[in-house]
From TrEMBL:
One of its GO terms (cellular component) is cytosol. Keywords: Carbohydrate metabolism, Isomerase, NAD. Pathway: Carbohydrate metabolism; galactose metabolism. Residues 4-324 form the NAD(P)-binding domain. This is UDP-glucose 4-epimerase. Its cofactor is NAD(+). It comes from the Bacteria.
Length: 338
């Protein structure tokens, strides 16, 4: 079976490509290389000994996308990662996000709406905002998005749901990720450090390796066990395996509905200070940090209720927080040749 992975040279995409190849799928990657490097293609091959087909296609390029599907008429499934994903950037540049995350999704669907196609959509727990009840279930209300990025995930799910309603040959699953961290055990793929990291874990590893002076902890006055915010940090390889489980559910025609959503997290919440302590234990490095004010837009607490993904997809996370942070540290050292 041939599977298209859009954004397949990106952080999560590359880990999913490795898992797909290891499960025997033939993979075709499209990526415009705007937030990654072509070297990731060789790095994937160095892990699996299989070079995925690669086409430099920008999903915003309507004609380029149609040309791609004419060139590859035998795609059975699509895992769609190609999108912009920085919350802060989306506030300052909303049209970039609506073009790259919404227009592109419409063009993708227009190319496959009359084919038998299984689609896995990269969504996010951001759609819940601050959930009223923790852990978060898939039935938690979708709240007004707090950023254009979060809005594109909410709208993206609706676009796919509405399309699948009238195109019975289209089946889709949206995976609502919590906080992906870590890197493949080979340390040959991981989160490429492009610019100043917005996310906690890459900032931690870059501080520990000496690239950043000090980590700023955004607020310790939250109503949590130690005052810092709580998130559900999931190893990217666990997350990648969830994608393969979701895809096979669709390819094997086991889905109950044309459109389903699943929360993908460990089911455990960790505070920022707990992440720092776990990193120090996993790496043996003392971390230089200071407490500063809260970051605008942050929620207090978000971690997944994982009954649905475990009972229906038969998936659950395997790596511990410490193991995930240890893999992030090994990756950081390799990237810096240390
Ligand atoms: C985690 C915690 C920060 C940086 C976002 C998106 C989500 C997904 C993951 C794309 C928070 C604190 C962070 C720092 C800190 N993105 N923090 N100092 O905001 O939970 O989720 O990234 O798919 O959709 O919303 O992740 O890693 O930015 O923050 O104290 O330098 O770490 O305040 O509590 P977040 P994050």
């Amino acid at each position: 079976m041939k599977i298209l992975v859009t954004g397949g040279l990106g952080y999560i995409g590359s880990h999913v490509v490795v898992e797909l190849q290891e499960q025997g799928y033939e993979v075709v990657i499209i990526d415009n290389l705007s937030n990654t490097s072509i070297d990731v293609l060789d790095n994937i091959k160095s892990i699996t000994n299989i070079e995925p087909a690669f086409e430099n296609v920008d999903v915003r390029d309507k004609d380029g996308l149609s040309k791609f599907f004419n060139q590859y008429p035998d795609i059975s499934g699509i895992i769609h990662f190609a999108a912009s994903k920085a919350v802060g950037e989306s506030v300052n540049n909303p049209l970039l996000y609506y073009e790259n995350n919404i227009n592109a999704l419409v063009y993708l669907l227009q190319n496959v709406q009359d084919k038998e196609m299984s689609i896995i959509f990269s969504s996010s727990c951001t759609v819940y905002g601050q959930a009223d009840v923790l852990p978060v279930t898939e039935n938690a209300p979708i709240k007004p998005a707090e950023s254009p990025y979060g809005n594109t995930k909410q709208v993206g799910e609706e676009i796919i749901k509405d399309t699948c309603k009238v195109k019975p040959n289209l089946k889709a699953i949206a995976l609502r990720y919590f906080n992906p961290i870590g890197a493949h055990e080979s340390a040959k793929i991981g989160e490429l450090p492009l610019g100043v990291p917005q996310n906690l874990v890459p900032y931690i590893t870059q501080t520990a390796i000496g690239l950043r002076e000090q980590l700023s902890v955004y607020g310790d006055d939250y109503p949590t066990r130690d005052g810092t915010a709580i998130r559900d940090y999931i190893h990217v390889v666990d997350l990648a395996k969830a994608h393969v489980a979701a895809l096979s559910r669709l390819l094997e025609k086991k889905a109950d509905e044309n459109f389903e959503v699943f929360n993908v997290g460990t089911g455990t919440g960790s505070t920022v200070l707990e992440v720092i302590a776990a990193f120090e234990k996993a790496s043996g490095q003392k971390l230089n940090y200071k407490i500063v004010g809260r970051r605008a837009g942050d929620v207090v607490e978000a971690y997944a209720q994982t009954d649905k993904v475990r009972n229906i997809l038969g998936w659950e996370s395997k790596y511990s927080l410490e193991e995930a942070l240890g893999s992030s540290w090994v990756w950081e050292k390799r990237v810096r040749n240390k």
